[in-house]
Design goal:
Blueprint lengths: L1 H29 E5 L4 E3 L4 E8 L4 E7 L4 E2 L1 E2 L18 E6 L7 E11 L2 E4 L3 E5 L7 E5 L3 E4 L4 E3 L1 E5 L5 E3 L7 E4 L5 E3 L4 E4 L3 E8 L4 E8 L1
């Protein structure tokens, strides 16, 4: 009896998960970002156009970017402003989004959201890859060395770069920045630069950008 009841509960949970997935897909069918494509490279200070299709049942349609991107401005019918309503597949709505000039390079999500009589709706997000147009003259890290750490310790690395105009930017989350551990049995490193000590020993973390290689030593006790 217990096994039969457990099987029924498991079946119900699977059905709920399936219905939730269908609901999420239905939401994304009501609102869809047509362009730009995900992983499009954009520059700090650049203004881009985001084209959204939404069913006429969608009201208060808005484009929201991950902080610090902010919200988009409507530039096509029916009216200018921040919020508009869906016009159907044949009449996509265009928003303009300005990339902040002082934003850090990295990946940022953008989503279109709206409301219907059934509640809030959300599109599938796209990702904008924010990168400076020029490469840094040099790079360095903070900290510059990792020592006296123990297995299980986690240390984040910040990658910084200086540019020809004397500006400095953090490049840790740039898609151009890649981290590699010299010996993952001693220390591992994530794609965004978090080092985890695994076992006693010495190794290094290598940081690569298109024009620079930089490494820092790691000592695990």
């Amino acid at each position: 009896m217990t096994d039969r009841r457990s099987s029924r509960i498991a079946g119900i949970l699977i059905l709920i998960a399936a219905l939730s997935a269908i609901g999420a897909r239905a939401q994304q069918e009501l609102i869809h970002i047509l362009s730009p494509a995900t992983d499009t490279v954009v520059r700090p200070g650049q203004t881009i156009t985001i084209t959204v299709t939404a069913e006429t049942s969608v009201e208060k349609l808005v484009v929201i970017g991950q902080h610090p991107l902010g919200v988009g401005q409507v530039i096509s019918d029916p009216a200018p402003g921040v919020v508009t309503r869906g016009q159907g597949d044949s009449r996509p709505v265009q928003f303009q989004l300005t990339i902040p000039a002082q934003i850090r390079p990295g990946a940022y999500r953008v989503t279109a959201m709206g409301t219907t009589s059934g509640g809030n709706m959300e599109s599938q997000a796209i990702v904008l890859d924010v990168e400076k147009s020029e490469e840094p003259a040099r790079i360095w890290t903070e900290p510059s060395v990792i020592q006296s750490i123990h297995p299980g310790d986690r240390i984040p690395i910040r990658v910084l770069g200086s540019f020809a105009d004397n500006s400095q930017e953090e490049l840790t989350k740039s898609n151009k920045t890649h981290f590699t551990s010299g010996d993952p049995h001693i220390a591992t490193v994530t794609a965004d630069g978090v080092v985890t000590a695994v076992a006693p020993g010495k190794t290094f973390i290598q940081i690569r950008t298109p024009q620079h290689d930089y490494s820092i030593s790691v000592q695990v006790q």
